[in-house]
Amino acid sequence: MTFPWFGSRKTFAHGIHPPECKDLTRDKGIRRLPFAPHLILPLSQHTGAPAKPIVREGQEVVRGEPIAEPGGFVSVPMHAPVTGVIEKIGLARDARGGMSPAIFIEQYQAANQEILYGAETDIDSLSPAELVKAVQATGVVGLGGAAFPTHVKLALPEGKQVDTVIVNGCECEPFLTTDHRVMLEQVDSIYKGIRIVMRALGAKRAIVGIETNKMDAVERMRAAVPAGLACTVEAIEAKYPQGAEKMLTKALVGREVPSGGLPIDVGVGVFNVGTLAQIGELLPIRQGLIERVVTVSGTGVRSPGNYLMAIGTPLRFVLEQVGFRERECELIFGGPMMGTTIASLDVPVTKGVTGILAIAKDHPLAHRNGRVYPCIKCGACVEACPMHLNPSELGLLARKMEYESMTEQHHLMDCFECGCCSFVCPSNIPLVQYFRVAKAVTRERKVSK
Amino acid sequence: MVGLGGALSAILAVANKKLYVYEDPRIDQVEDMLPRANCGACGTAGCRSFAELAVKGEIAPGKCTVNSAEMTGEIARFLGVGAGVEEKRVARLACAGGANVARVRAHYRGLPTCRAAHLVAGGGKGCAWGCLGFGDCEVVCDFGAITMNEYGLPMVDESKCTACGDCVAVCPRALFSLHPVSHRLWVACKSLAKGEEAERECEVACTGCGLCAADAAPGLIAIKDNLAVIDYTKNEKASEDAIQRCPTGAIVWLEDGEGTVKGAAARKITRKSALPIG
User: Fold this and answer.
1) pLDDT category, A8, cuts 50, 70, 90?
2) Chain-centre distance of CA A61, in angstroms?
3) Most buried residue, A46, A345, A390, B222, by CB count within 10 Å?
4) Helices A273-282, A128-138: inter-axial angle, 10-degree rounding
5) Which runs of E-coded beta strand occur in chain B?
6) pLDDT value of position A2
7) For position A384, what pLDDT does the model report?
8) Neighbouring C-beta atoms of residue B223, cutoff 10 Å
């Protein structure tokens, strides 16, 4: 007999166990947030080329109508999340702190917000190439946070094969319960999505990986596996960063993704459950991605929960709706480990936002305001790093701005900024911030060469 | 022992003669006349390689912007070439948004460098184009020409600036550029935000109102993306007329010795303390 929380669970080496903090929203069902009166839709919500607007100022749009076309292959279209009028196309503040072009929509308060676009399609009659196009037309990107256009992952490069589709239901970041709720409430859409992705890639099997802290989701997903689908559901150890695609590939199929490579190099395609749920829901009716589930949580929020909100809803509106307790909070898009700190309330929720956290100053996960001490060479970061790098050495080099040696001898570019090293560092050294600066400089130098 | 020493010294003596590479003695002399800052402003690897090129006649002594005028002249006389002196250039900052006039919307806590803050949601500064004020430029300047003032804005000492370009490269918001000192008319703002929005974040922002363009010589100033842009190819037509009606004082006249001159209509900034965060 095996206990779900006991014994040898599949996992990867290294990693950490941060406080989970998921109790705030774990049991809160998905609820719809009202439509904001004004929406801001950045043209660059996804990785890749920005979308190109196909509407003009003053034009009326209906909910679900395409408003921007993809700006290339690695790009996706955008759809109007509300019925309303295009206010303007201009610069808007983005989550990174800069200003980037966006479409502003004013909502018609009296409109019934019905989606009048889309057409039923028989997906079984589509070829893999047509499926890729159809997925691009839905505007779906990786909803786990990276916002990489999903159809690009489905278009196999010459000579590459995928035998296994890994479905990422780990959600290893503290606080976030978006994927958890989606797995509990949108099981059928997820399996529809898995079927579509498996057909597009020609994969033989699918494995759903879910951490052991979500056993209810494991059971729900196991019970709902459709007959004839080669899909298994695995419970894996709750450990951060289990949900990183390289870690998950290692844990579930035991294959190591080469340095600088992608899971596709070892015959694996990794997809987030939320992404698959959206594909399963939108593709058969040919609609576009206009809303997503976002966990709003943290000690600074009055009514934390999992909210279905229109893409483009400004952060200020979200906080007004859910109630804001503290005047001074850390605001984060995504999880506390890898999320983006937000410095302006005018930033909109985009396709890649998994959570909105307002963390009050006294929370243990809030910014440790303590002094930074010298490195004592304890090696805690080395033991934590899931990529088996040496953050201690990298940190010392970063202080001396020896970026070349960092990339060439210490594999800086393999760091995916999971934050384990900074989290465990007893000297409070902001290692990941050093690495982010180093990576940015290295990328700049590469471009200028 | 003595024999071994003698044998080895003989080998060294022979090697010294056999492997001798002739080097133009003028290179050493020219190098002595260079500032030896090895700053790279001239585009060569350092003062030694500059001296080599100068002796070969491939670079004019005036290309060294760090050297004093007399020493440059001396090198030119010594080598018997023209000095090729170019007009002195200095680094100029296209921002005037110090802590007393520009809004900060969020506390930033982290590595105290501009580059790091720039990557964290823009460091919390209201203006997405403005100076972050952590002084990366002050640190990188080898000549002590940049000092941060009490409002966290870098001030360039024109007499010390050698136009080496280190500050231009280090600023994550690309606010520095090198200009000949004769470029007196200057737009100290880079904000592309619309008038009201720009002014909400900073009291000395260019609002793109176009008054300067109307008052200046035709074609000298253009309004591009809500920002006044000066066409320096027409610099000889620049005068102080252009700055007089600027409501925020974003366009200024840089007078030798007198510092920055704002127009008569510019809003007077009397606030000495930093604006509250929020």
Assistant:
1) low
2) 28
3) A46
4) 100
5) 89-93, 146-148, 154-156, 176-180, 185-187, 221-224, 227-230, 251-255, 259-261
6) 44
7) 96
8) 17
A230: Cα separation from own chain's centroid: 26
Rounded-to-integer distance, Cα B54 and Cα A425, Å: 52
Interface contact A98-B123, CB threshold 8 A: no
For A334-364, the three-class secondary structure string (H helix, E strand, C coil) is CCCCCCEECCCCCCECCCCCCEEEEEECCCC
For chain B, where do the domains classified as CATH 1.10.15.40 start and end? 2-79
Identify the bridge partners of residue B37 per DSSP, sorted by sequence position: none
DSSP collapsed to 3 states, B183-251? CCEEECCCCCCCHHHHHHHECCCCCCCCHHHHHCCCCCEEEECCEEEECHHHHHHCCHHHHCCCCCCCE
A369, two tokens: 């305001």
Strand duo A268-272 + A164-169: pairing? parallel
User: Can you read off the two tokens belonging to residue B212?
Assistant: 């300067």
Q: Is the Cβ–Cβ distance between A174 and A418 less than 8 Å? A: no
Mutate to test the interface with B, among A401, A425, A437, A443 (most CBs of B within 10 A): A437
CATH class label, B89-261: alpha beta
**Sequential pLDDT tens for chain B (278 residues):** 999 999 999 999 999 988 888 888 889 989 888 888 888 888 888 899 999 988 888 888 888 888 888 888 888 888 888 877 778 889 999 999 999 999 998 888 889 999 999 999 888 899 999 999 999 999 999 999 999 999 999 999 988 998 889 999 999 999 999 999 999 999 999 999 998 999 999 999 999 999 999 999 999 999 999 999 999 999 999 999 999 999 999 999 998 777 888 988 888 888 888 888 87
Spatial separation of the C-alpha atoms in residues B141 and A268, rounded to whole Å: 50
Provide the token pair at A417: 């900024």
Q: Which domains does chain A show, CATH number per domain?
A: 123-285 (3.40.50.11540), 380-448 (no CATH)
Does CATH number 1.10.15.40 belong to domain B2-79? yes
- The C-alpha atoms of residue A13 and residue A16 are separated, in whole angstroms, by 10
Of B105, B113, B115, the CB nearest to A343: B105
Residue type, A29: G
Cβ neighbours of A96 in B, within 8 Å = 119, 121-122
Calculate the alpha carbon distances from A228 to A194, A225, A231, B208 in Å: 13, 9, 9, 65
CB A307 within 8 A of CB A118: no
| Contact status, residue A438 vs residue A356, Cβ threshold 8 Å | no
- Could you give the ipTM of this predicted complex? 0.87
A342 and B121: CB-CB below 8 Å? yes
Q: Is B194 on the interface with A (CB under 8 A)?
A: yes
